[in-house]
């Protein structure tokens, strides 16, 4: 069961350095036209001095400030990342330490690019189970550290960033109709291996630098199918009030365009900001929600569907009745 919650604060943080498609043309055989035509991406933020923890802390700080909640009132922290700075402690634990939260449930989830959806549902579920009133959900990724910068098919796709929301128990539920799903990745469609490590008992092992391995055509086929399926389920469940806004995972604009055509939905109902960020994995949905609100596209009273898909192969979605008034709507 989910606790009845609303999102009361949101924040994002991206690295300072911006790398354009023209910049990448100096590294690999590519061009702005080649990348943008196939993906919709124009530029991405790339971490130089920043790390996943620092980006997450900054995003959470903004979300807490907007919500007005005090760190000591936080009862649950759920973080999601596949590119965390440490194996242990968890990113959630680092957030707890950074904000001086004396006692709370703190954990990470790993669900690839669907991570934020999984983390959001997990946090609301834990709030119900543990009887907590406030939760932090944060996604932070440094994807560019795992790119093969000699492979033009994958290195152009990813960027770095973090996004966070604060959940507050409410009288009526504003997070609705959660969907969490996974399909076995029998063909290793998306894989990032850990680098091998030797012990005195294993002998020396080769430890090449591991990077993102992806079968693009298979990812596209999977993504459009599960995104359409999730959206259909969410819209069918909304019998009291229809979904009027959709914020999908920002993996490739062509995936979104395909679903728009297939489902015959208005393009203006979809928020797309991949041009400026590329694919930030689990951070893409909260970053998009933040941009959507700041731009005036998303406002209090909107019913927004979020849908994600990623490695695992995972997928999921949820409906959010948005309650934060954007500054342009005041």
From TrEMBL:
Keyword Transcription in the entry? The reply is no
Pathway(s) per entry: Lipid metabolism
Any GO BP annotation? fatty acid biosynthetic process
InterPro entries from the UniProt entry: ACP_syn_III_C (IPR013747), ACP_syn_III_N (IPR013751), FabH (IPR004655), Thiolase-like (IPR016039)
Instruction: Mention any Pfam family matching this sequence.
Output: ACP_syn_III
Q: Which residues belong to any copy of the Beta-ketoacyl-[acyl-carrier-protein] synthase III N-terminal domain? A: 107-174
Report whether Transferase shows up as a keyword of the record.
Answer: yes
Q: Where in the numbering of this chain does the Beta-ketoacyl-[acyl-carrier-protein] synthase III C-terminal domain appear?
A: 241-322
* Record GO terms (molecular function): 3-oxoacyl-[acyl-carrier-protein] synthase activity; beta-ketoacyl-acyl-carrier-protein synthase III activity
What Enzyme Commission number(s) does the record list for this chain? 2.3.1.180
> What's in the keyword line of the UniProt record?
Acyltransferase, Cytoplasm, Fatty acid biosynthesis, Fatty acid metabolism, Lipid biosynthesis, Lipid metabolism, Transferase
Q: Which PANTHER family does this chain map to?
A: 3-OXOACYL-[ACYL-CARRIER-PROTEIN] SYNTHASE, BETA-KETOACYL-[ACYL-CARRIER-PROTEIN] SYNTHASE III 2
Q: Which family does it belong to?
A: Belongs to the thiolase-like superfamily. FabH family.
What this protein is called in its record is 3-oxoacyl-[acyl-carrier-protein] synthase 3
């Amino acid at each position: 069961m989910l606790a009845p919650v609303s999102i009361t604060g949101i924040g994002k943080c991206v690295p300072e350095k911006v790398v354009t498609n023209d910049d990448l043309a100096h590294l690999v055989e590519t061009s702005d036209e080649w990348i943008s035509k196939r993906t919709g991406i124009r530029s991405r933020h790339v971490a130089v001095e920043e790390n996943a923890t620092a980006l997450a802390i900054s995003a959470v700080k903004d979300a807490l400030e907007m919500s007005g909640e005090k760190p000591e009132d936080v009862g649950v922290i759920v973080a999601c990342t596949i590119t965390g700075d440490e194996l242990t402690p968890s990113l959630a634990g680092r957030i707890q330490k950074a904000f001086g939260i004396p006692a709370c449930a703190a954990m990470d989830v790993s669900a690839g690019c669907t991570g934020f959806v999984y983390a959001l549902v997990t946090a609301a579920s834990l709030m119900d189970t543990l009887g907590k009133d406030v939760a932090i959900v944060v996604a932070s990724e440094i994807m560019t550290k795992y790119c093969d910068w000699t492979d033009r098919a994958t290195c152009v796709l990813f960027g770095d960033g973090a996004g966070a929301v604060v959940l507050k128990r409410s009288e009526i539920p504003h997070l609705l109709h959660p969907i969490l799903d996974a399909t076995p990745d029998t063909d290793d469609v998306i894989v990032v291996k850990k680098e091998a490590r030797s012990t005195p008992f294993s002998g020396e092992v080769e430890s090449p630098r591991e990077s993102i391995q992806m079968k693009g055509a298979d990812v596209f086929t999977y993504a459009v199918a599960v995104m359409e399926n999730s959206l259909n389920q969410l819209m069918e469940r909304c019998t009291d009030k229809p979904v009027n806004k959709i914020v999908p995972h920002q993996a490739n604009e062509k995936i979104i365009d395909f679903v728009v055509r297939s489902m015959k939905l208005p393009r203006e109902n979809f928020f797309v900001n991949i041009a400026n960020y590329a694919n930030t994995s689990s951070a893409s949905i909260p970053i998009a929600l933040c941009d959507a609100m700041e731009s005036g596209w998303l406002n209090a009273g909107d019913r927004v569907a979020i849908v994600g898909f990623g490695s695992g192969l995972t997928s999921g979605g949820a409906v959010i009745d948005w309650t934060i008034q954007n500054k342009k709507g005041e």
